[in-house]
Amino acid sequence: MPTDAPLPELVSFLDSLPEPHILFDRQYRIVAANVAYLQQFAPPGGSVVGRTCFAVSHHFDVPCDQAGESCPLNRAQDSGQRERVLHLHHTPRGEEYVNIELTPVHNAAGEQAYFIEKMEALKVARGKPAAQGLIGRAPAFQRMMELVARVAPAMATVLLLGESGTGKELVARAVHDASQRAARPRVAVECSSLTETLFESELFGHERGAFTGASTSRAGLVEAASGGTLFLDEVGDIPLTMQVKLLRLLESGTYRRVGSTEVRHADIRVVAATHRPLEQMVREGRFREDLYFRLSTFPIALPPLRERPTDIPLLAEALLQRVAPQRRLGISADAMRRLVQLPFPGNVRELRNLLERTSLLCDGQRIELTHLEHALGSARGAPQDGSGLAAVAHALALGQGQADLAVPGAMTLPPLAVGSVGLGGMATSGLRSSAAPPPPPQSLHDIELAVLREQVRKHRGSRAELAAQLGISERSLYRRLKALEAAEGQNPQI
Fold it and tell me: Radius of gyration over alpha carbons of the chain, in Å?
């Protein structure tokens, strides 16, 4: 059935809009495009009128839903209302993520005759290698970015959930940069590094004389983020006693500086992130249920790298630009195939560390399979018995609370005479050789400390490398070393 000709007034109205718009019919044919669209998205020197939207934007021969994409037109036909999707479009600048908002236009009979499509480039993510920002094309990545695009313009609290190394801080930055608060501050709070005694003062600030050493009044991080975004990184590490104070901030938007009775109002948008299982922690009584519900207004799960292996070549090219910007390194086909096969338990962070290590082993302009295998071999240089990475991970999992527990097999550890080794690669006391090695450690604390020191030495002081191999964050590794060495009565040289 032929469609009615669009009203000239409608076409003229679209031309007056500052955002890119196109008008197309039920057969996907573009019947009008406004000036803003032609300037931003139209192919150079070519007309889009009469062509299908899927051919222009995607270079498809069939509609989007037949090519594995979500089609807003079909969704609008089913729902009878406006629909939004995130698509990867071909543009004069290359492939870009574009927010699509499609609105049906009804004729006199009440039937859907035309569709108006508003487009807005999502500049915080790319489908090609770039010097900065989020990069990916895999379906899991696109699903995540669609959620980011939906929530960014709102004020809703966002909870980012994902394994260590999946890029939670980058996604938090994307939420901020795609919001109406992009021009205002984005302040990160490292919750895992704040002790219970410092948490309230750092977050809310304090008045002069509030406690010993408070010689001046100081604004907190909430005030520093005024008008912008407060990013609570590793929110699962907030002490239970401090969680109620954070809840009060989120519920009422008010807070008090330490030592003050004055109620202050916070103009902030909160984005939180954690790798911990908060629901399980709630059941175990280690995280407040009311705080969890308040933080998880809009949860976004970040996919691990193993769920997006097709993105590894894109990420590898982009990360090489970042770790070796002056060299323009390439990767051979064999090396890339090997790279895609790796499990990457440390996710993108581990990939970046591996590529940085590999780039240092390559003297030419192209990374070969031998360079990659050499880099992998150096990372696997530690013994894989009870003194290797498995022992470290096991000890880390057990925690401090069992420091006096005797561990069977402790005698199998090699005798270590290692001084305090910093993660910058320098030994503060050096390695001490002795004809008579000290007695083997008999407690979990001693074993864990000795093993961690040995692994630091084997990784040549690289905290990032060791943490990636263990599948934990650098901050977790840092805290564990500090706790172990503090328990031994030493000043950690980290």
Answer: 28
| Pairwise CA distance, residues 447 & 314, whole Å | 41
Q: Domain 146-301's class?
A: alpha beta
DSSP secondary structure code for residue 208 in this structure: T
The encoded tokens of residue 28 equal 């996907």
In angstroms, the Cα distances linking 325 to 134, 312, 368, 482 are: 18, 19, 18, 34
To the nearest 5 percent, what fractions of the chain are helix, strand and coil?
40, 20, 40
The single-letter DSSP state of residue 307 is G
**Same fold? 8-126, 305-379:** no
Classify each residue of 165-204 as buried b or exposed e, where b means 16 or more C-beta atoms within 10 Å of its C-beta. bbbbebbbbbbbbbbebbebbbbbbebbebeeeebbbbbb
Q: Per residue of the chain (494 residues), what is the pLDDT tens digit?
A: 445 666 788 888 898 999 999 999 999 999 999 999 999 998 877 789 999 999 999 999 999 888 888 899 889 988 889 999 999 998 888 889 999 999 999 888 888 989 999 999 999 998 888 878 899 999 999 999 999 999 999 999 999 999 999 999 999 999 999 999 999 999 999 998 888 778 888 899 888 877 877 778 888 899 999 999 999 999 999 988 889 989 999 999 999 888 888 889 999 999 999 999 999 999 999 999 999 999 999 999 999 999 999 999 999 999 999 999 888 899 999 999 999 999 999 999 999 999 999 999 999 999 999 999 999 987 665 444 434 444 444 444 444 333 333 333 333 333 333 333 333 333 333 334 444 454 444 444 555 566 666 676 666 666 666 766 665 666 667 666 666 666 555 444 43
Tokens of 478: 């840092």
Instruction: Kindly state the tokens that stand for 167.
Output: 């890029």
Fold for the domain defined by 305-379:
Helicase, Ruva Protein; domain 3 (1.10.8)
Domain locations along the chain: 8-126, 146-301, 305-379, 389-487
CA distance 255 to 358: 49
**Cα 35 from Cα 58, distance rounded (Å):** 20
* Cβ neighbours of 255 (radius 10 Å): 22
CATH of domain 8-126: 3.30.450.20
The overall longest dimension of the chain from CA atoms, in Å, is 97
Burial class (CB within 10 angstroms; exposed 0-12, middle 13-18, buried 19+) of 41: buried
Sequence-ordered strand ranges (E) for 145-208:
158-161, 186-190, 205-206
C-alpha to C-alpha distances, 253 to 234, 239, 257, 267, 268, nearest whole angstrom: 21, 20, 14, 7, 8
Q: Which two tokens stand for residue 365?
A: 């302009």
Answer whether 97's CB lies under 8 Å from 15's CB.
no
Structure tokens at 403: 């420091």
